[in-house]
Each structure stands twice: as structure tokens, then as C-alpha cells.
Amino acid sequence: MSVTLSIIILTCLVSFPAFSNEKMKNDLLFWPYAIKRNNQYYRFISGGVVHADTMHLLFNMVSLYSFGMALEKFLFPVLFHEKTVILYIILYMAAIIVACVPDFIKHQKDSNYRALGASGAVSAVIFAAITIEPTMPIRFFFIPIDIPGYLFGFIFLGLSYYLAKRGGDNIGHNAHFWGAVFGVVFTIIAAKFFSPVDLVKRFIDQVF
After folding, report:
1. Rounded to 5 degrees, what are φ and ψ at 114?
2. Which residues of the chain have pLDDT under 70?
3. 118, 175 in Cβ contact below 8 A?
4. Cα separation of 174 and 55, whole Å?
5. DSSP strand E in the chain: where?
6. Are the C-beta atoms of 100 and 44 separated by less than 8 Å?
């Protein structure tokens, strides 16, 4: 079984019971105040497995399947060959944590701030794919035309940054932004060490 499908199955097995079990959800979600006060560092990981509701879970898992399978089966193997699986796992797991760090620093004294969902890690997977194939076509659910991946990336990053600054909607836009940034940085660094391909030059050549 692929790593992507394994992640999706595990996430669903945890998320579905938590929909109707508020205690379970509260025990797992990302809560900076509890992490700082009670040393519950497991929340950096568990918060990326539990979701708010069916639509939240569905959106993240469909996005993960679409880009994760492409990354795991085609894009990473071209660059990393036998190291594909371990690098893909590291990308996903590290992104869950890294995407939460800015909000942990910002909200560790705020007992009311809580977040949940795999959005940060999913953003990392999407942007890792875009880094390798910047002109790959991406289509929004509500816009029936394809746009190149790099353009989607710029729009996504700008919008996430703006919405994070504005705040007030209880969505982890910071996690989206930093997960995406991590996906780009991780893929470029991994290619430097484990692939002869210069991804920065390749990106520039394809876009410009």
C-alpha cells in the first residue's frame, strides 16, 4: 500500500470517531496553551490527524490523494529513486510540526486558541509537487479552467498571508502558509543532497 493511502486511512480512522466525541477531539487537537503548560508535545502531531467535520476531512484527503500520489509515484521517484518513501514520510511528518510552530509561538499564552487538521502537511505536499513541476495544471473546484501550478502557488501564498494577518475566521492560514513554504524548501534541499537536478534552475527555466 502506498504511503499516501496509509496516511489517508489513518487520518480517517482517527477523525471519524472524533466527530462525535468532543473529549477525543479536544485531547488530540493542536492547543499551544496546553502544550506549553502541560508539556503535551504530542499535539504537534495529533492535531494534524484529527479534523473538525466531514467536509474539512474530505477536502484535505482529496487534495492529499491528488498531489500525494503524483508526488509519491512519479515526481519524487524521478529525483530520489530508492529514497522516495523515506523522504516523502519525512516531508509529511515534519510539515505537520513545522506548520504549527509559528502559531505555537504566537498563541502559547492564549487558552482559547486551538486548531486541527492536516492542512499544513497537505500544503507541503502540494507545494513540493509544484516545485518539481511548476507548470502542472491545477483547477479550483469552483473555477472550470486550469492554471499553472506556479501561479496557483503565488496566489495561495499571498492569500494565506493576507488572511492570516487579518484573522478572525478560525482557519489556520498560518499553517497553510508555512506548510507550503516548508514543502518548497524541503524539496529544494533534498534535491541538493540526493539528486543531480537543480530544481531552482529548472523552476526558473520552466516559468520564464
Report:
1. -145, 150
2. 140-143, 167-172
3. no
4. 20
5. 137-138, 147-148
6. yes
Non-local (6+) Cβ contacts of 196 within 8 A are none
CB 4, CB 69: distance < 8 Å: yes
C-alpha cell at 89: 514520510
Tell me the CA end-to-end span of the chain in Å, nearest whole number: 38
Which 3 state secondary structure label does DSSP give 147? Answer: strand
pLDDT in tens, 6-56: 999 999 999 999 999 999 999 999 999 999 999 999 999 999 999 988 988
- 124, 107, 134: which is closest to 33 by C-alpha? 107
Domain with residues 3-207, CATH architecture: Up-down Bundle (1.20)
* C-alpha separations of 46 from 11, 30, 146 in Å: 10, 7, 34
Residues 6 or more apart whose Cβ sits within 8 Å of residue 66? none
Asked if 149 contacts 130 with a C-beta cutoff of 8 angstroms, the reply is yes
CA distance 135 to 127: 12
